[in-house]
């Protein structure tokens, strides 16, 4: 599968090298990349069942369908402020992150404009997918889980 901006290495399963990324999802990601205008680094796209299990993915993960992407990102921290578990000090830290760099908003805006309506926010990555079998307009938080 050819992609203008994304390497096969980023899209395929790291264990078996199989690339079953959904073309429609990839087109959306390409669109987001065009809007964003800067590189988007994918840390996880297609996963075979074995690899998904290994990385602790959900048994019905959209990564298994090739419809999900994890994007390396460190500036989504403000969104974690939405978590009621955050302390005032933590929230202020998130706020400072936004002051220092608005990159996170621009990336989320680009992903939204490209049509993604399912967002999972981690401390170091953003999960997006366009799984037609799952509810739209949802946003969840991964806590301190690293990917
Ligand atoms: Zn695999």
Would you summarize the structure shown here?
The protein is an alpha+beta fold. 35% of the residues lie in helices and 14% in strands. A five-stranded mixed β-sheet has the order 1-2-4-3-5.
Structure notes:
Helix content is 35%, strand content 14%. With 147 residues, it is an alpha+beta fold. The chain has a domain at 1-73 and 116-131 and 139-147: Muramoyl-pentapeptide Carboxypeptidase, domain 2, CATH 3.30.1380. The chain has a five-stranded mixed beta sheet with strand order 1-2-4-3-5. The site of zinc ion (ZN) has 7 residues, from helix 3.
Which strand-content bin applies to the residues? 5-15%
Please mark out the parts with pLDDT under 50 across 5 or more consecutive residues, or reply none: none
Strand and helix order: HHEHEHHHEEE
Distance between the termini: 24 Å
Q: DSSP helix count?
A: 6
| Small-molecule binders | zinc ion
**Helix percentage range:** 25-40%
Largest sheet: 5 strands, mixed
Fill in the CATH topology of the domain at 1-73 and 116-131 and 139-147.
Muramoyl-pentapeptide Carboxypeptidase, domain 2
Give the helix/strand class: alpha+beta
Rg (CA only): 15 Å
User: What is the overall shape?
Assistant: globular
Count all strands and give the number: 5
| Side-by-side strand order of the widest sheet | 1-2-4-3-5
Classified by CATH, the class of the domain at 1-73 and 116-131 and 139-147 is Alpha Beta
What is the correct CATH architecture of the domain at 1-73 and 116-131 and 139-147?
2-Layer Sandwich
Query: What is the overall pLDDT average?
Result: 86
């Amino acid at each position: 599968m050819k992609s203008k901006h994304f390497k096969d290495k980023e899209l395929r399963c790291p264990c078996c090298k199989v690339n079953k990324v959904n073309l429609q999802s990839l087109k959306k990601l390409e669109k987001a990349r065009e809007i964003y205008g800067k590189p988007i680094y994918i840390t996880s796209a297609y996963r075979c069942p074995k690899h998904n299990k290994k990385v602790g993915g959900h048994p019905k993960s959209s990564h298994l369908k090739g419809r999900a992407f994890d994007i390396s990102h460190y500036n989504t921290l403000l969104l974690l402020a939405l978590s009621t578990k955050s302390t005032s000090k933590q929230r202020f830290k998130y706020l400072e992150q936004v002051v220092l760099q608005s990159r996170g908003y621009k990336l989320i805006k680009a992903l939204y404009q490209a049509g993604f309506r399912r967002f999972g926010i981690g401390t170091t990555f953003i999960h997006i997918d366009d799984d037609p079998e799952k509810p739209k307009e949802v946003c969840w938080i991964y806590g301190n889980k690293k990917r």
